[in-house]
Amino acid sequence: MAEDLIAAIETLCGAIRSLPETDELLQNFTARGLDRGRYDATIPIRDELAQVLGFLEPFEQDCGAEHLAELPRLHVSVLLSHLAALQRITDEIQTKCKIQPPTGVVLPSYQGSERRVACSVENAYSQLYSELAPLRRLAIDALAKRASGKTTSPTEGLTGWPLVDRCTATARQQLEKATTEEEFQAVGLFCRETLISLAQAVYDPAKHSTSDGINPSPTDAHRMLGAYFAAELVGGSNQAMRKHSKASLDLANELQHRRTASRREAALCVEATRTVVELVTIISDHR
Question: What percentage of the chain reaches a pLDDT higher than 70?
């Protein structure tokens, strides 16, 4: 059944990536036959699906897929049901935003239930996380060793957070040897892991409230670090530092989720991620 699980993960990841970006040109939506306003209303759903994608991507790699073979059959069955539900929600997005030819009418779809559907995605993601988080860490470690060409982890101790240091070093090593789009995308994966590890190291829900009141998932680095900067750099005297920190975080987050990747974008992603790490290290006085 592991093969079925791997196939389901790959299919779901591909479907999420195929969803148009929110800021795509209007003519692209027209060419797809999608109503722009209706599609924009699905942002809460797509934001949650982006979290799912970021979590599942390591399992698309060979060394990640290998770890899935260790799961008991019963666990695989449960995971397949959650993946099927997420696949259905993903597929429905474009279907429910379709303009019906030749009338140009958009049929009733979510009818204001986008938030409820987003909660369904979040719940399914929580189940995936509880089952797969330990295997995901093993997959990331295996990818890091492959990228570094070593059987030991890259140099640690630069920030004092071992996971952050390993992922940062691995991202740089991956960038140095990357030549294909897939390899440049892997740079973004390691940058994302860097910020997830960083956020988990410093985020305290009792001290760092999110701006939208939503409790961040364990891999929602953007929301956790945004709350961290807002709380730790409070006050008018820190306004410039808050803006700089937020801009660096936003840039790193955007570049990590680019579906097309070039050497320039990968290099910018590494640099933006490094800046965020440096800012948090200085603010926390952790070094």
Answer: 92
CA angle 46, 51, 54 (to 5 degrees): 120
Q: Are 266 and 179 in contact (CB under 8 A)?
A: no
- The pTM of this model reads 0.62
Residue pair 265/251 in contact (Cβ under 8 Å)? The answer is no
Cis peptide bond N-terminal to 154, omega within 30: no
Helix (H, G, I), strand (E, B) or coil at 170: helix
The overall average pLDDT reported for the chain is: 83
Percent helix, strand, coil in the chain, to 5, is: 70, 0, 25
What number of other Cβ atoms are within 10 A of residue 247's Cβ?
Answer: 12
Supply angle C-alpha 98, 100, 104, rounded to 5: 105
Q: Which residue has the tokens 């060394």?
A: 63
Asked if pLDDT for residue 156 goes beyond 50, the answer is: no
CA–CA gap between residue 68 and residue 135 (Å, rounded): 7
| Token pair belonging to 106 | 């958009």
Beta-bridged to residue 91, according to DSSP, are none
Token pair in block for residue 167: 């992922």
Tokens of 60: 């698309």
